[in-house]
Each structure stands twice: as structure tokens, then as C-alpha cells.
Specification:
The complex is a heterodimer.
Chain A: E1 3-10, E2 17-24, E3 29-35, H1 38-53, H2 61-73, H3 79-100, H4 104-107, E4 115-121, H5 128-137, E5 142-145, H6 149-152, H7 162-168, H8 170-179, E6 184-188, H9 195-205, E7 210-214, H10 222-231, E8 236-238, H11 244-253, E9 259-260, H12 264-267, H13 269-282, H14 295-307, E10 314-316, H15 318-321, H16 325-328, E11 329-330, E12 335-336, E13 339-341, E14 351-352, E15 363-367, H17 389-404
Parallel strand pairs in A: 4-5, 4-10, 5-6, 6-7, 7-8, 8-9
Antiparallel strand pairs in A: 1-2, 1-15, 2-3, 4-13, 11-14, 12-13
Helix pairs in contact in A: 1-2, 1-3, 2-3, 3-13, 5-8, 9-10, 11-13, 13-14
Chain B: E1 3-11, E2 17-24, E3 29-35, H1 38-53, H2 61-73, H3 79-100, H4 104-107, E4 115-121, H5 130-136, H6 138-147, E5 152-155, H7 172-178, H8 180-189, E6 194-198, H9 205-215, E7 223-224, H10 232-240, E8 246-248, H11 254-263, E9 269-270, H12 274-277, H13 279-292, H14 305-317, E10 324-326, H15 328-333, E11 339-340, E12 345-346, E13 349-351, E14 361-362, E15 372-377, H16 396-404, H17 407-413
Parallel strand pairs in B: 4-5, 4-10, 5-6, 6-7, 7-8, 8-9
Antiparallel strand pairs in B: 1-2, 1-15, 2-3, 4-13, 11-14, 12-13
The chains are: A alpha/beta, B alpha/beta.
Chain lengths: 420, 419
């Protein structure tokens, strides 16, 4: 099988989402997704990574990940390029799952579970208690909100007046008053606060029994975050902004956090999130994948959650799930009564709806095999991140080797399935 | 698909070798293997782990690994139980690969390469006597390997001289004598061939430090088990004393023990034994952990033929694999009596298996050997750790009352991890 085209699909609303479709010389098309600064991602997909991938074997996922990562890391990995890698990686797993006829989690080692609890992100300042009741009625056992975010702006997070802190605690108190211990509540700080304020917030919230404190501080210094974790009994949770196992490693190994929240479509796709979950497991730390982005991410995370013994909970945003997700994908993520179920279809488990391509605001861009003659496809540029001809030759050899198929059979294989 | 039968096969002539075959109701059979204390492993498989799997879906490898590991770790994981888990894990991957019609490396993420360089550990079996010959004709042994395209070898020059004092006293003279073969190779062949040192954990720390300093000019590929891997801090001192990489070796069990060596910079190479440390599932995880520290793995062999195939799949799908161990005396001596097709070594490389699954089967003649011991299990047993009647659980009426008291608990009880 060969990759023939990489296609990106984006729309004006929501402007941050972008889908990547990897076409092959068979009828199989792989679907990937990422979110944030979609035009930059689009450029990275086509101008930077497509020439590495088009014309190659879609099954060599590990090789593609490494090639793309190295190309990007020549000038410091991260950002839009890593989001592009994440989306392409997901699409490659989708192709492989479809080719094998099984959901992706089967390829990651198989299921440890067939469903996982979800939590709901987002709550109004007024009415959080009512929302909590509604969530519980719908079978949802946990929620997340971020009431400290708006009060950080006036001081750039450097100072928080006690009465302002008291003010932002109100939604949490509402929930506890309305449902007692009936629901777990997480606080998301979106990386707004300086260390002393973060400690102040975490301590003040402790009596409200917070499930985790997520990104109270910017994720720039593991030692600083460790001080926060040492100061509070609430688990510190990190973070969708930490990219790849290499950044998360620092925060996990130094004990700065007790819960890991990778964003699959930012941190390196299914491949890298799987690796992060493995790394977290040796520190006996759970993984709670990040969402609040697009619908395909939930599918990809579902595969991680079904396979990872240390998956804790999966995020979702109900207004997205029951709102715009349905305009774009079919089927919707299999979330029912508080549970995300194992996707049943082969591959990632969903497809873009055909209407998406007819939208007046749709922006499609395609890189096909004509790009293969350009630029650094085969040899890189001199002095740059060279992928030596040898390496491509090796990939060709891999393809040839596979095409030969029964090479070993010719050497006298006589084994049969039965009677051994 | 469900698992219908678990079968173990071992031999009087090879008291350490044991194969496990996991049979399914579709006729697919998965093959696994481990090495060392085969009768204890056999008991572990039939009395402890195998019966958990009967009637269950072989595709849920991760779940089965967790359940077996937890059951074993109730009384401290390791040893024969870990080897039993490793063998079963390999057999489950074999089934999955056959069912999906893919070599296992495709399932693990797809090829990063189609062959991996091997080094030859000097062994002795039948006509091949590399292990003896290296003392009398070291250059000849090295040259014969180079002629086959094999550019690395592993020897254990210091094992013999450790014997007298049990590794506690080391005379300069003795070490000089033991290093003569390696010096001769360096004199005649320069760096044409890489030579790794495996010391089988015979030395104490000060003698190990002396050996690494003395061997530094001979540029060994790595030092493996100069001291026992019981204490990673001793290895930190050893690694700090030499530019030669220290390899953290085969007797470390699971990612949890490897973690200590990887994170503390006690070693620069991880050498998991796939058939001891937890199978394909666990070696893949150890490789991921090592990758976060920019360390390679170099899988261990000298155990059995199926291990070579299983490690081949890891090597094809894992970027940070450095080199694969190979023992031509064992391979050409007896591996081929047991499996077909054989794995392929070409120009110093182990080639990617191309058949679905593991890529090999037991030969039909294996079960007809006069020295064979075959044992099978086909009755399911419930894992007591997950039993609703665990001794730490409340009586059934109270359990029911608790579960039915809220919607949350009712819904949760439907998602019990292993039933």
C-alpha cells in the first residue's frame, strides 16, 4: 500500500479545527485531526511533512513519526508542526486499523476495558449546582471548571486579593451545596498564576475536595510546579501543553504532578500518547486525556483509554458533542450516560460527513505525488536535516521485502495451524 | 475467538527450555517460549496463569498481562512466574498477528527497519566451539565472524579468574592473563570487530571499577553485569568511572526494575530478556521508557529460538534498538530442531519475519521426541484477586446493598475490570 495524497480540510467555524485525510492507492483513507491555528498547521502538513510521507508505505507508522519529528526538531520541536504530526499519525493508525479490520485499540495491545467514565468540562459562574444535578442525572460523575481564569487578567496572575478568591470559589460551593459528594470537581487554571498565588488557590480550595488542580501555573518549570504539589494535598494535573514524552518526563519524574493529561492531537498523536501512558505507568501515575477540541480526538483517545490500564477518566464538552460535532462526523463519539464506549468500527471509528466537503466555507488543500520531486523529499538540503538516500533506500527495501511476502515460505515452511 | 487450551512442551535434554502453545477455538495456535527452570514455569502456567485465560478473548493482551502480573505480584513479582507470563504474552501476540494476517511488528507500529544488526555471543554447542576457541585462537574466531558479515561479538574473559575468590580479590596478573585474547584481537584486527564484555555478575564494586579502567583502552562495546544489578547506585559509580557504556541486563524484571537503571544514569544501554521480563508487551514498554532518556535497548538472547523471532519484531518496530544478540552455536546447533521456518541471519543481520504473527511454528517432530513432557489445561479458573468473594470484601448482601444504593455505583459495577 502506498500513500498517494494528503488532504487537509478546514472551515471558518470553528476556525481552529483541521482534519487531515491520508489517501492511499487502495480505497482506504485515514482520518486525523488537530485543533488550534489551523492555517499554520495546514502549511506544515503540506509544505513540510507531506513530501516525507507521500509515496511511502502507510504501515511504517513508527518510521514516519520519527522522520517527521526529526525534521521538525531540527529547529526545535513543538507548536503547529507537532500538531501536524499528531494529525498525520492518527490518520496512519486509522489506515492500519481499517486494513486489519479492527479498531485501533486492538493494535495497541488490545483492550483492558470496554468503556471508560467521562467528565464534563465547562460550567457557568451562576448555576454550577444546577448543572451538577443535571450531569449526575445523565450518569456523569465528574466535572471541570475554571472560575479563576477571568480574575487573573487584571494582575497578570501575580496577585489575587482574598475577596476575589472567595468570589471565584462560589461555583464550587454551589456544587457542594447542591449535590454534596455526588460529583467530583476539577479546577483548570489555564496556566495563569505565579507560584505563591497558585499555592494560595490550591490551599483555599482544599476543603472543597478538588479532584485535581490543572495548570494553575504555566508549565515552564518542573521544580516550581513541584513546590505547588508539595504544598497541597490536591493532586496536581499536567498538561495538554506539554509536548511529547520528553517534556512530560521532567514533570512526572520529579513528582511535580500526580495526574497526566496529554492532548493527543497536540503532543504527537496516538503513537506518542501511548508512549506517555506507558511512561506514566512506571510512576504509578494515571492518564486522563485532554479534550475540548474536535470530535475525532475523542475517538483517538478512546483507543488509548481502552488499552491503557492507567487511564483514569476522559474529558468531553457536552455543548460540542451535542452541538457542532454532529455537523462534521458520523458516527459521533460513543458517549452514553457518562461512559465513553470502545469504538466498534475498524480503524479510528468515524468519518467526515460528505456534506462537509460541500460547505461554502470549506478550505481543501491537497498534496499529491507531484510534490515528491521537490525539495528535500529524497535527500534533504545540504547542511539541513538530511534524510540520507540510504534511509529512503531502506524504506524501499522494506516495501520490497514485504512485497515478496512468502520469502521465508520458500525456504521450506511447512507449518499448519492445526494439530501441533 | 476464545482460548480453548494451554499446552506446555519441555524436554529432558534441555531442562531449561519450555514452549507454551495457546490454542483457540478457531484453530489458530500461538507459540511462546521461555528458558530457565522449565518445570517451575510449567507449574506456573498450568496452576496459576493459564486457566485464567481459558474461555477468554486472546485479543485482550494488555488486560491478560495486567491480570497475570497482579496475580503474581500479590506475593512479589519475578522468577518463574514472570517467565510464564512472558511466554504466554508472546503466544497471545502470535495469535493476534495470525488473526490480523500481519507480522507482529506491523501491529507494534510498523517497520522502522527491515533488518537489525546482530552480534555473536561466543558459545559452545556441537561442532561450534567459539567459546573455547577464543582462548587459543582469538583472531581466528573474530575473523570467521567478520567473514560472515558479523561485526560484533561478546565474550566473558573474567568469569574464570573470578572463581577462586568469588570475585572479591583481583590480581593484576590474573586480569592481564584474562585480557590476552582481546588484546590479540585489537593488535591484529584493530577495531574491525566490536567486543562486548559480559561478566555474569561475578565481581564486587572495587574490582569492577578496576576492570573497566583496565579495559578502557581496549574499547569494549559495553560492560554487562560486572556487578549484580541488585543496586543501581553501585552501577551509577561504575558508569561514572568509564566512557564504556554499562548495559543493564537481562535479569531486571519489567519496566519497573529497568526504570531505576534508566532514570538514575546507572547504565547507557538496556538489555531486557524478552522471555524473562514480561514478553513482547513489556519489552516494548521498556524501549519506550529508555527512549525518553535517549537510551538504546539491545535485546538479550542465548535462550531459545522463539525469543529471537519475538525480539526481531521489537527490533523492526522500535527506533531505539541498537543491536540484537545472537548465538550461532545455539542457532546452528539446536534451534532448528524445534522451529520452522527458521529465522534468517543474512550478512550479519537478523531479517524481519514476514509470516503473519510471530513467523514460526514448532516442528511436528518436536512433540514426538522421546524426552518430551507435554501438559495441557483446558479448564477455566477464576482469578481469586478479582473474585467477588475475596476475603477483604463484605458479605454478598452488603455488597448488593452498597451497589444498588446509587446510580453511580450501579453503573460502575457493570464495568468491572476482569470478569
Amino acid at each position: 500500500m502506498k500513500i498517494t495524497q494528503i488532504e487537509t480540510v478546514r472551515v471558518s467555524d470553528p476556525a481552529d479545527v483541521i482534519w487531515v485525510r491520508v489517501h492511499t492507492d487502495t480505497s482506504l483513507i485515514g482520518l486525523g485531526e488537530t485543533w488550534y491555528a489551523s492555517k499554520t498547521v495546514e502549511s506544515a502538513v503540506h509544505d513540510h511533512f507531506a513530501p516525507l510521507v507521500v509515496g511511502r508505505d502507510p504501515f511504517a507508522i513508527e518510521r514516519h513519526w520519527l522522520n517527521m519529528f526529526r525534521l521538525s526538531d531540527h529547529a526545535g520541536y513543538g507548536g503547529a508542526e507537532l500538531r501536524a504530526i499528531s494529525a498525520i499519525d492518527m490518520a496512519l493508525w486509522d489506515i492500519k486499523g481499517q486494513a486489519a479490520g479492527v479498531p485501533v485499540y486492538e493494535l495497541l495491545g488490545g483492550a483492558v476495558r470496554k468503556k471508560i467514565r467521562v467528565y464534563a468540562t465547562g460550567a457557568p459562574y451562576l448555576g454550577a449546582g444546577e448543572l451538577a444535578k443535571e450531569l449526575i442525572d445523565d450518569g456523569i460523575i465528574a466535572m471541570k471548571m475554571g472560575p479563576t481564569i477571568p480574575v487573573a487578567t487584571p494582575t497578570e496572575g501575580q496577585y489575587l486579593a482574598p475577596k476575589d478568591l472567595d468570589h471565584v470559589l462560589q461555583p464550587f460551593r454551589d456544587v457542594r451545596d447542591a449535590v454534596g459528594d455526588g460529583i467530583k470537581i476539577a479546577n483548570d487554571g489555564h496556566g495563569k498564576w505565579a507560584l505563591p498565588v497558585a499555592i494560595q488557590i490550591a490551599k483555599e480550595m482544599e476543603p472543597l475536595d478538588i479532584m485535581w488542580q490543572e495548570d494553575l501555573m504555566p508549565l515552564l518549570n518542573p521544580d516550581a510546579l513541584r513546590q505547588l504539589q508539595d504544598a497541597t494535598s490536591t493532586p496536581v494535573c499536567i498538561s495538554e501543553r506539554l509536548l511529547t514524552r520528553w517534556q512530560l518526563r521532567e514533570f512526572i519524574e520529579n513528582g511535580a504532578a500526580q495526574i497526566v493529561m496529554p492532548d493527543l492531537i497536540w503532543t504527537g498523536g496516538i503513537s506518542e500518547t501511548h508512549r506517555i501512558a506507558v511512561m506514566a505507568s512506571v510512576h504509578q501515575v494515571p492518564v486522563a486525556p485532554h479534550d475540548a477540541t474536535g470530535p475525532v480526538n475523542i475517538f483517538a483517545c478512546a483507543h488509548i483509554c481502552m488499552n491503557s490500564p492507567n487511564a483514569m477518566l476522559m474529558e468531553h464538552v457536552r455543548p460540542y458533542l451535542y452541538g457542532w460535532y454532529g455537523d462534521f462526523v458520523d458516527p459521533l463519539p460513543p458517549i452514553e450516560h457518562g461512559w465513553l464506549h470502545a469504538p466498534q468500527n475498524p480503524g479510528i471509528g468515524t468519518r467526515l460527513r460528505p456534506e462537509v466537503f460541500d460547505r461554502p466555507d470549506v478550505q481543501l488543500r491537497v498534496s499529491d505525488e507531484s510534490i515528491m520531486i521537490d525539495g528535500m523529499n529524497d535527500e534533504g538540503w545540504e547542511g539541513g536535516p538530511v534524510f540520507p538516500e540510504k534511509m529512503w533506500a531502506e524504506m524501499e527495501e522494506i516495501a520490497d521485502f514485504r512485497a515478496q511476502g512468502s520469502r521465508i515460505s520458500e525456504r521450506g515452511f511447512s507449518g499448519e495451524g492445526d494439530d501441533q | 475467538m476464545i482460548i480453548s487450551k494451554i499446552e506446555t512442551i519441555r524436554f529432558g535434554q534441555f531442562p531449561d527450555l519450555i514452549f507454551v502453545q495457546v490454542h483457540t477455538d478457531t484453530g489458530l495456535i500461538g507459540l511462546g517460549e521461555t528458558w530457565y527452570g522449565a518445570s517451575a514455569v510449567e507449574a506456573g502456567i498450568h496452576d496459576h496463569f493459564g486457566p485464567l485465560l481459558i474461555g477468554r478473548d486472546p485479543a485482550e493482551i494488555e488486560r491478560h498481562w495486567q491480570t497475570m502480573f497482579r496475580l503474581s505480584d500479590h506475593a512479589g513479582y519475578g522468577g518463574a512466574e514472570m517467565r510464564a507470563i512472558s511466554a504466554i504474552d508472546v503466544a497471545l501476540w502470535d495469535i493476534k498477528g495470525q488473526a490480523l494476517q500481519m507480522p507482529i511488528f506491523e501491529i507494534l507500529g510498523g517497520g522502522t527497519r527491515h533488518r537489525i544488526k546482530v552480534y555473536n555471543t561466543l558459545g559452545v554447542y556441537g561442532d561450534i566451539t567459539d567459546g573455547y576457541d577464543v582462548w587459543t585462537d582469538p583472531v581466528g574466531v573474530a575473523q570467521r565472524l567478520l567473514d560472515q558479515g558479523i561485526t560484533g561479538m561478546k565474550m566473558s574473559p573474567t568469569d574464570f579468574i573470578a572463581r577462586e575468590s568469588d570475585g572479591q580479590v583481583l590480581f593484576n596478573d590474573d586480569l592481564e592473563w584474562a585480557l590476552r585474547p582481546l588484546r590479540e584481537i585489537r593488535d591484529k584486527l584493530g577495531m574491525e570487530i566490536e567486543v562486548a564484555n559480559d561478566a555474569h555478575a561475578k565481581w564486587n564494586l572495587p574490582n569492577a571499577l578496576k576492570i573497566v579502567r583496565e579495559m578502557e583502552p581496549l574499547r569494549p562495546m559495553w560492560h554487562e553485569e560486572l556487578i549484580s544489578p541488585l543496586n543501581e547506585k553501585a552501577h551509577v559509580r561504575l558508569q561514572a568511572a568509564t566512557t564504556t557504556p554499562i548495559a543493564a541486563a537481562e535479569r531486571l524484571m519489567t519496566r519497573y526494575q529497568h526504570r531505576r537503571f534508566i532514570e538514575s544514569a546507572a547504565a547507557r544501554i538496556s538489555m531486557p530478556d524478552l522471555t524473562w521480563t514480561g514478553g513482547i508487551s513489556e519489552v516494548k514498554k521498556i524501549a519506550i521508557l529508555a527512549s525518553a532518556h535517549q537510551m538504546p535497548i539491545a535485546p538479550h538472547d542465548c535462550v531459545g529460538p522463539v525469543n529471537m523471532l519475538a525480539c526481531a519484531h521489537i527490533a523492526m518496530a522500535t527506533p531505539n534498538v541498537m543491536i540484537m544478540e545472537y548465538n550461532r552455536a545455539m542457532h546452528l546447533g539446536w534451534y532448528r530442531d524445534f522451529i520452522e521456518p527458521d529465522f534468517v541471519i543474512e550478512d550479519g543481520y537478523l531479517m524481519a519475519p514476514t509470516e503473519p504473527g510471530l513467523g514460526t511454528h514448532l516442528k511436528k517432530t518436536v512433540k514426538e521426541r522421546p524426552d518430551v513432557t507435554i501438559r495441557t489445561s483446558n479448564e477455566r479458573q477464576e482469578p481469586w484477586l478479582m473474585s467477588p468473594n475475596r476475603y477483604t470484601y463484605p458479605p454478598p448482601e452488603l455488597q448488593e446493598e452498597f451497589i444498588n444504593s446509587t446510580e453511580r455505583r450501579k453503573a460502575g459495577s457493570e464495568a468491572i475490570y476482569y470478569d
